[in-house]
Design a protein that fits this description.
The protein has 91 residues and is of the alpha+beta class. Helix content is 31%, strand content 33%. The radius of gyration is 13 Å and the shape is globular.
Length: 91
């Protein structure tokens, strides 16, 4: 079993039929990810078109499964894409 954790960038782009209630439910979803130790960081785009978050997961399939549980995706309010991200951090 591989216990390696990778980082996955989830980009959420708002659709024309964006529902404010999905945005509120999305915040609850993110709090749950924090409680489960799966969320590294999150934030909206300053232009209001959506946002992104960084998930910790074992593989792309798991990360995609988690992201597809996001109320933004479930409601069709946003289009989510998931990308494995090899982050480089500098001092």
């Amino acid at each position: 079993m591989n216990d390696t954790v990778h980082l996955y960038l989830v980009m959420a782009i708002r659709n024309p039929a964006f529902q404010a209630s999905a945005g509120e439910e999305h915040q609850v979803f993110l709090k749950d990810l924090i409680a489960r130790g799966l969320l590294d960081m999150t934030g909206p785009f300053t232009d209001g078109t959506g946002g992104a978050y960084l998930l910790r997961a074992a593989d792309l399939e798991t990360a995609t499964q988690i992201a597809h549980g996001d109320p933004l995706h479930v409601s069709g309010s946003s289009t989510l894409t998931v990308h494995e991200w090899r982050v480089r951090r500098f001092p």
